[in-house]
Amino acid sequence: MSLLSVVRDVCAVVGVNPPTTMFGSVVSPRDQFEILSLANEMAQRIAYDVREWTQMKSFATYTGDGVKDRFPLPADYLRMLLTANVWPSWMARQPLVYISDTDEWLMRRQSQVAVTISEWTLLGTNMLIYPVLPSGHTVSFAYLGKNCIDLRAPNGDQNGYSDAFVSDLDRFMMPERLLKLGMIWQWKANKGSPYAEDMGTYTDALFMLAGSNKPAPVIVDNLPISRNATVALPWPNTWGVPAP
After folding, report:
1. Which residues contact 29 (CB under 8 A, 6 or more apart)?
2. Rounded to two decimals, what is the model's pTM?
């Protein structure tokens, strides 16, 4: 469902004349301007503030050259995942040590503290890594992207991603119904109209989607598994007890 389709559905509920376009060469009417602003705000609110949706997660990998000690964060970087680590290629089960305090990072570099496990921190729009990555060595991490809008060309083809709508054909990365329901209750709240029931409908849809967005993995062997795993048969018989 395109942005224009979502907006027209919202207008049908809140009592606003549906627009023929959200973008034009002339000054937009006040309602149209407010609806576009609300669409961007609600899309970003859902994508950034609710949970770490699988649709918004990305991976990044840096390759060392023996010289660089910092690497630019990805162009679509919003923040690290809440449980993210930076994983080196040469020590697959031991992540790099995160130094959260900038002053501590500076102190450790100035005093040339010897480290047995490489360290990393964030500074500005860069990730700093110490010691310098040897040539050919890599580090990888997962992060939350900021581009929650699927851009569409005039013919409907995919045309990149953005953090805001730029055309009538653009699509929200999450289910558009959630965007529609969120816009309806927030529009009514902004205008001083009763909105409790609409917010409840939105919240129900939000919780249902959030709960199904990260299914628990199933254990089928004794390999390293996620903390969120759910035990299921078959399970390896390691205790010498005859299987039922």
Report:
1. 19
2. 0.81
Phi, psi of 16 (to 5 degrees): -115, 140
Cis bond upstream, residue 131 (ω within 30): yes
For the segment 153-187, what is each residue's pLDDT rounded down to a tens digit?
988 888 899 999 999 999 999 999 999 999 999 99
Q: Domain ranges in the chain?
A: 3-53+148-212, 56-145
Amino acid code (one letter) for 89: S
Element (H, E) at 201: helix 196-212
| Omega before residue 234 within 30° of 0, cis | yes
210, with CB counted inside 10 A (0-12, 13-18, 19+), is middle
Strand partners, 162: 149
Beta-bridged to residue 97, according to DSSP, are 119
3-state secondary structure of 231: strand
CA angle 125, 56, 99 (to 5 degrees): 40
Residue 18 has pLDDT above 50, yes or no: yes
Dist CA 82 CA 143 (whole Å): 9
Q: Is 184 exposed, middle or buried (0-12, 13-18, 19+ CB in 10 A)?
A: buried
- Residue 236 is predicted with a pLDDT of 53
- Residues ≥6 apart with Cβ < 8 Å to 18: 7, 8, 11, 12
